[in-house]
Amino acid sequence: MLLHQLFEHTARRTPHKLALVFEGRRCTYGELDRMASHLARALQSRGVRRGDRVTLFLDNTVEAVAGIFAALKCGAVMMPVNPLTRADKLAYLLNDSGASALLTQTELGGAYRDALARNTTVHTCFVASHGAATDRDARSLPFPDLDGSGIPDDPQAIDQDLAAIIYTSGSTGEPKGVMLTHLNMVSAATSVSTYLGIRSDDVILCALPLAFDYGLYQILMGFQHGATVVLERSFAFPVRVVETMSREGVTVFPGVPTMFSLLMNMTSLRERNLSALRAITNTAAALPEAHIRDLRALFPQAKLFSMYGLTECKRVTYLPPEQLDIRPTSVGRGMPNEEVWLVDDAGRRLPNGGQGELVIRGSNVMRGYWRKSDETLNKLRPGPIPGEMILYSGDIFRTDAEGYLYFVARKDDIIKSRGEKVSPREVENALYGMPEVLDAAVIGVPDPVLGEAVKAFVKLKPGASLSEREVIKYCMSKLESFMAPKHVVFVDDLPKTDTGKIRKTGLS
After folding, report:
1. What is residue 19's three-state secondary structure?
2. How far is it, in rounded angstroms, from Cα 177 to Cα 159?
3. What span, in angstroms and rounded, lies between the C-alpha atoms of 270 and 297?
4. Which of 93, 105, 162, 448 has its CA at a distance of 20 to 30 angstroms from the CA of residue 385?
């Protein structure tokens, strides 16, 4: 089955079931399917064909959701782009992908018009108007009325065709377009929704950008199983989002550590009825143990899933909630229909208890990086079966005796201090153990004596106070002496990537 056919199957089976809630608008599966088909027909009438790239430069909106499935119905490749993307980067993405069509909105006019001025491949640009006026590019047209009707031509796509190109956040170097086939994405959605137990009576919050695959898959998995998705533009106003969660009876709450930090600092949180919540999921970065304790105390009825994944394969591991008390810092083991293991520097498979690079094998593994053959060959290498390619994550993990995985560091993140190897994550975990600490990032900086010194950047909770000496002393009590920070810098905020991870590039 193709990716969009999961949604179409649900729409045929339960056309009157509520599919999407967005800012007071409520769309059934039948209505949303008609919107996507009408938009697909409009794209085809403008020359969009199988294999063309359709860029979705939109906020989380109904148009964005319809655009995802419209592109797929055309046999095209959807390419979601974060609406915070600047013109220079958007121009690069349009040119690199050779995009044929752009779906966007008037509020983003400054960025998309500048980008189109430096692009020759986009022949169609549909602009959704939300009450803001803008000067249109010559290639721009008003967004088709989604209340219209139209059935797209069947593009005769197969599951080996590309369904999406998702560009990595590009914290270093140029962004890379991760190529994902229908088979990749159907496999990933099925595996993840299986261990999460997604069902038709779930109400799933999506306050993550749809350009972030974690956000995108809330739509895909929810619609695969006939659930209702409550779509929010962002988590910038957590009080409002929590009010919506309470009103709509949200049962599944996907988040990232920065969102959970905001949530746990809400003084009015306990006044809201969130008793329907049955599952909380976390990825992008590991949850500190202190956050895990706080979330479980706030939502004792909900199961908390710690997960690890890569855009290159969507998801890799999850920790069954019943294991949290036993191994709270683990990200679990491989998900259904996938095989994972660790290798040493020579590529030899390691037994349980070892430490090395994580390797992933499964139908969820990407096809490669768009037009970047060297980077693809570095990431995808021959697997156990002749002709098969497996994914080398670039992340160092260790396993315990039972094979549960623990993140250590990116291969290029390891700090070498006093001749010892220091994992930034281990130091960050210690820092998060301090009640006053809200966010922390650890890097290595050149040191004439140590080779590299451990440097910590710390954001404190509102009203909290700490000194550099107190932080170092605490770390010395929790870590081996060579792992304790030599330098501590207190900051008002830490830079974040589009996906909510702390961006260490530029910290010094």
Report:
1. strand
2. 19
3. 11
4. 162
Are the C-beta atoms of 417 and 482 separated by less than 8 Å? yes
Cα(278)–Cα(301) distance, rounded to whole angstroms?
A: 6
**Alpha-carbon dihedral sign for residues 116, 118, 122, 123:** positive
Parallel/antiparallel/unpaired status of strands 355-361 and 487-490: unpaired
Strand partners, 11: none
Residue located via tokens 């998801």:
315
Phi/psi at 386 (nearest 5 deg)?
-50, 130
Q: Among the residues of 46-108, which ranges form H helices?
A: 62-73, 87-97
User: What number of H helices and E strands is found in the chain?
Assistant: 13, 27
What average pLDDT does range 62-69 have in this prediction?
Answer: 98
Please count the CA atoms within 13 angstroms of the CA of 503 that sit on its side-chain side: 13
CA distances, 414 to each of 163, 359, 411, 471 (Å): 35, 18, 6, 21
Confidence of residue 80 (pLDDT cuts 50, 70, 90): very high
- Per-residue pLDDT tens digits for 235-255: 989 999 999 999 999 999 999
CA angle 38, 41, 44 (to 5 degrees): 155
Cβ neighbours of residue 316 under 8 Å, at least 6 residues apart?
A: 308, 309, 310, 334, 335, 338, 340, 358, 360, 393
pLDDT bin (cut points 50, 70, 90) of residue 338 is very high
316: its two tokens: 């890799």
Q: What's the burial of 271, exposed, middle or buried (CB within 10 Å: 0-12/13-18/19+)?
A: exposed
Residue 413, both tokens? 């993140």
Give the helix, strand, coil percentages of the chain, each rounded to 5. 30, 25, 40
pLDDT digits (tens, 9 = 90+) for 173-208: 578 999 999 999 999 999 999 999 999 999 999 999
86-111 as b/e: b if 16+ CB within 10 A: ebebbbbbbebbebbbbbbbbbbbeb
| Residue carrying the six token digits 């967005």 | 22
Q: What is the rounded CA–CA span in Å between residue 219 and residue 202?
A: 12
Q: Burial of 193 by CB count in 10 Å (0-12 exposed, 13-18 middle, 19+ buried)?
A: buried
The residues near 380 (Cβ < 8 Å, ≥ 6 apart) are: 365, 366, 368, 389, 390, 391, 392
| Distance set, CA 54 to CA 36, 92, 101, 121, 494 (Å) | 14, 15, 5, 11, 33
Token pair of 428 as six digits: 């960050």
At residue 170 the predicted structure's pLDDT band, cuts being 50, 70 and 90, is very low
What's the one-letter identity of residue 121?
T
Cα 189 to Cα 173: distance, rounded to the nearest angstrom: 29
Radius of gyration in angstroms for the set of CA atoms belonging to the chain, rounded to a whole number: 23
Q: Which of 291, 302, 338 is nearest to 196 (CA)?
A: 302
- 41: tokens are 């027909």
For residue 448, the Cα-to-chain-centroid distance in whole angstroms is 39
Q: What is the spatial distance between Cα 265 and Cα 260, in angstroms, rounded to a whole number?
A: 9
